[in-house]
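Re: the multi-chain job from yesterday

Posting the exact lines I submitted so nobody has to dig through the queue logs.
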Amino acid sequence: MSVWDGHMGWLGALDAGITDRDMTTEEIARAEAESCFGKDGVVLEKDGSLGEGYRILAEGNAWRVRGGKTGLLYGVYRLVRHRLAGEKLPEGDERPQYGLRMIDCWDNMDGTVERGYSGRSIWFEGGRLTYRPERIRMLGRLLASVGVNCLCINNVNVHEPAQGLIDEMLPDLKAMAGLLRPYGVRLMVSVDFAMPMRCGMSTADPLDEEVAAWWKDRAEKVYAAVPDLAGFLVKADSEHRPGPFTYGRTHADGANMLARALRPFGGTLVWRAFVYNCMQDWRDTRTDRPKAAYETYQPLDGQFDDNVILQVKHGPFDFQVREPLSPLLLSMEHTHLAVEFQLAQEYTGHQIDLYYMPPMWDEVFSAMGKDRPVAIAAVSNLGRDDCWTGDPLALANLFAYGRYAWDPMCGAEETARIFIRMTWGFEKGDEDILARALMGSRGIYEKYCAPLGICWMVSPNGHYGPSPDGYEYQLWGTYHRADRDAVGIDRTSSGTGYLDQYPEEFQRIYRDPEKCPDEYLLFFHRRRYDSVMRDGRTLIQRIYDDHFEGAALAEKMAEDVKKLPFPERDRGEICRRLDLQVKDAAEWRDVINTFFRRLSGAEDERGRKIWR
Amino acid sequence: MSVWDGHMGWLGALDAGITDRDMTTEEIARAEAESCFGKDGVVLEKDGSLGEGYRILAEGNAWRVRGGKTGLLYGVYRLVRHRLAGEKLPEGDERPQYGLRMIDCWDNMDGTVERGYSGRSIWFEGGRLTYRPERIRMLGRLLASVGVNCLCINNVNVHEPAQGLIDEMLPDLKAMAGLLRPYGVRLMVSVDFAMPMRCGMSTADPLDEEVAAWWKDRAEKVYAAVPDLAGFLVKADSEHRPGPFTYGRTHADGANMLARALRPFGGTLVWRAFVYNCMQDWRDTRTDRPKAAYETYQPLDGQFDDNVILQVKHGPFDFQVREPLSPLLLSMEHTHLAVEFQLAQEYTGHQIDLYYMPPMWDEVFSAMGKDRPVAIAAVSNLGRDDCWTGDPLALANLFAYGRYAWDPMCGAEETARIFIRMTWGFEKGDEDILARALMGSRGIYEKYCAPLGICWMVSPNGHYGPSPDGYEYQLWGTYHRADRDAVGIDRTSSGTGYLDQYPEEFQRIYRDPEKCPDEYLLFFHRRRYDSVMRDGRTLIQRIYDDHFEGAALAEKMAEDVKKLPFPERDRGEICRRLDLQVKDAAEWRDVINTFFRRLSGAEDERGRKIWR
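And the result, structure tokens for all chains:
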């Protein structure tokens, strides 16, 4: 029996023993190939010119994989997916769309995971880096098998003692990097912009020469321990984090100073473009949080160094169930960008509610184009739970993320089907049922939570379950301003002017409330409850209908999925969560409908139960 | 210099050195008398027949205090208050109204204080009983000086390791009891009803003979260490605490079993009558939380043993700014009752907002009569902060509580004035200003928070600041059900029937919405915003007016109080809090007014600013 006795994710058909010991990348590739194709089923041929890429060639009854550094391994996994799940093979050379394909872990060194719904941290506990090596290797396999090549291991909110990861804990960082290196996964570390002050300096001013020298020296020490560290990730001047604003400097000043420290070692400085006023006065209707990132960063376009990547959340708010594309992603022509997703289901059901993300990503890439960013990042949904992601169905998002990071045009449904075949190997009928459930899941969740792009009707702090006014009189810039007549925010030029941040072709889509797609209606416009939607229904009736439908669809979906032949270890977790989702969807339905009924006074035209 | 260098509360005129060492009660009485009246100013004469009581006699230029056990000490403090603050002396013998005058501390052994706004616990830290002895003695003095005779030292929610207070930590309990004993303060301990199971038994069923025997044995051990322990306090079957309901037993079964264990040692079992469904469905309009205590306990009247005291909160909810008297306090003819107040300003401003409680207590005693309860309890507002209560002005509530526990008819304003003279010795004009501020403070707070008896429009969990819908879709049984037309709950017999729990003379006061006192209107009735109040204003206009007035009055009050000549150490804390109160009162005003304007659509008749 192998050392790794835990969940294999979607790699259950392979030999678990591969995680028992340290191996080189080529040894791993060979072993995975052998476990799937037998001893001589695959020939490996190294070709450095391919980089992370590969070419797969049929040679009689065997396969030849030609590949560069880690390309061999990626090629083997591609073959494995082809064999086990019928994934199509590429014609010619295959290379990833993005060179940097990151998972950002919000793991704290006390073992908690901020916004984590899969148990405690896999590698932190009690202020230390500590783990089972075979668990880390297994994680490396899972990531490599879908092409993820970077793991930022600590929370962007750098709490003590995580600063020590690039200081006294460097030997531990080095050891963990060594475990993941054969899988092509490089570590990244979130750093504290004010760290020089932790180390006795009187300032962290990015234009102070001693500060810059301090960071250069620090980088030298870090790279001596981990020569292939991907770089640093920084959240600065955001939600009370320190940053360049303290010193009257721009974010370009801050990012470039750090980037120059990393440059000699080939490191990348990833700078999170998540700045807004988290102390807004709710009475202030001129400030509009979605405008903040563009206002802060757009004027800096062209000022960032080459090895800086500005990491931008896909929407202008914060990973809500429905947001338009961030206008910042359309405007930074002369800046390297990463688009940031969130696999952790913070606002999308806590890995209790089923929420398959690729349909949302399809919208993002279709609006943005795949070539705008040079990198891609996603907040981790990983944890110490048996199946890695709490809900075994949430593994689908991790799997899909890797596939999208490699090829954003890979397709949501095909990805779902390959995941299902890899993970559970269902027969066609069952695969159809689960693929349908996954593909429909986001639409269902959207129907029963905050209506039509309004966002934020979620319980404060926890972010699970309905609280229609929970963010209404708060400091977070998150308002719907529902009154007895109308709801929503006018973000056109006659309102907050947020829409003006978009190119004209986007403005055309959203500007006119009569033409604006329904799902964005209340994001861009303030509408009366009795206003008539394009399909002839009033807004209030549409809200009621959506919520009744959403809860009913959740019930139907749960019923379908619970019948599927999952193995016991997954079945219990899946069914327990689906039952909770059904209950919680009904709660959403009732709270939201009652909230709007109390305001509007409108009855449901179809006479369904809305509580008083 | 004496060992005690901290705040002396209202005893600043006395000699701090009295806290330096262990003294007998009589030694303390003598030393306090001497420090105030000089060496031969007071003659002490022991008279056991007076118990806690005393008689004060003028003898030429000196005073004679005749008193029983602790009566001598109480008599001396009475004389001190007479000398320093002009408090009238009693004619003839003076005895306390209530034999048990408790402070219930919600201190946890990790050093936190549940709903504490005065810093960490004075005696718990890191899971142990640990303190500066002189601080405990100083506390004993403060309590003795106003006649408090019992301190329940741990949270009624008994969290590990507090169970150990009556087990492995008995030596520590004994030591602390020894420090307070000379001040006439007996300890009480909150116990965990399920404690036998912590100690290896398979049940905590109160009718199980082995359980009863276990508690008898436990009591014997406890009283061997602390022979004058006042008894045990229990919160059972409440907010997820264990209790007799687990075993299908009544609360009389549970309380009597414990009381019988305490009886041989003269101990009292205080049983908290705070049971309600804290998992209510907000859709359920038939269940009404204020009905719960009466429904649970009234049928048990007469079934409790003689040494059981049922501790009943003064209102049927939970220490809101405005509640009617709990009907349970009017109905338990054959049960020993304690009335419970809360000095900690959980729902009344966190010791930031000024909130002097005696005017509220006057209402309670005027409705209930002083002779119904046999005991009195108050949740502590004590903590490790310099001035004991966070806000130096909140000391007034601690002082007043002792005075009311001794004599509930002592008068709110006179109490305020004596407190002011004792503590700061202001001249008459300044005393008038502060007395007026204290006396008006509750009315001001009430005006700017939830309107007209509605309760609960407070931020969930924290309980500070406005959140109009914060408790609306929750499990706590706390609903206002405001919609676009009306607000409030009909609690008459045509509604939830809560009013039926009262004697007829109370029903007459509240039954008719046209006659119900304004301050209880929305507690007992559901009213349309356009309904006309007795003074001719509409309900919605009254809500607006109250909130504008409340915030304006808070501003005026702060301005007045900030001018007073407090000593520096108090001044900073007081002013900081008053500034916060002014800011937060404006926030209450705006949030509540906006909430009701969004619902009602009504404009303010006087054209003042209500945000949209």
